[in-house]
Specification:
This protein is an all-alpha fold. The protein has one domain. 69% of the residues lie in helices and 0% in strands. The radius of gyration is 17 Å and the shape is globular.
């Protein structure tokens, strides 16, 4: 159960993250995700066998932390009605994780008033922490993370060489991020966790 609950929480969090991208694109005029049947919270539609199952199992059993992803929801940027549509669509994913974290943090803060049992509080704390890690991690401006799409949408045309450079070296940059920059990501997520919940880890 110690493995199952974190993986289930991560799975639903990344599914909500991807569905939020799809709904943001749909709201801005792009029906690609809807036509692909991806505007659903049914996890089967979003499962990536490697990123949603294998990697979370490996990272939890070998490193004691949870990491994974779902299949990206497709969208066509040329259908978006806004000049900054790409930034809005990319922001929707991390924003959904922050909203989930805020809701469950609120339950934790009012747990005494609501009479919530300690087990529920522990699970809620895990929901908050995992969603904050997802939000912080995805906002880093390294392709293919959401932060890069936000950056590319806001960059003036004369700086688009940076987009080409980042895309060219995205695999190397992502590996550096995963193996060396966790010591920056985790403290940021833990700071937000304490701010949201009032709890210390």
């Amino acid at each position: 159960m110690e493995i199952i609950f974190p993986i289930l929480i991560l799975l639903m969090s990344v599914v909500l993250h991807e569905v939020s991208h799809g709904y943001a694109a749909y709201y801005l005029g792009d029906p690609t995700a809807k036509l692909a049947g991806r505007l659903t919270l049914n996890p089967i539609k979003h499962l990536d066998p490697v990123g949603s199952v294998l990697i979370p199992l490996l990272t939890y059993t070998t490193g004691g932390f949870i990491f994974g992803w779902a299949k990206p929801v497709p969208y066509n940027p040329y259908n978006l009605r806004s000049r900054y549509g790409g930034a809005y669509v990319a922001s929707a994913g991390p924003l959904s994780n922050l909203v989930v974290a805020a809701v469950f943090a609120g339950l934790i803060r009012f747990s005494a008033v609501l009479g919530l049992p300690p087990t529920f509080i522990e699970l809620s704390a895990l929901v908050v922490l995992l969603n904050l890690i997802l939000a912080v991690f995805n906002l880093i401006p390294v392709p293919p993370l959401d932060g890069s799409k936000i950056l590319f949408s806001l960059l003036p045309y004369r700086y688009h060489w940076l987009e080409d450079w980042l895309n060219r070296y995205q695999l190397i940059l992502l590996l550096i991020l995963l193996f060396f920059l966790w010591r920056l990501i985790l403290p940021a997520a833990l700071f937000l966790f304490r701010t949201f919940t009032g709890l210390a880890i």
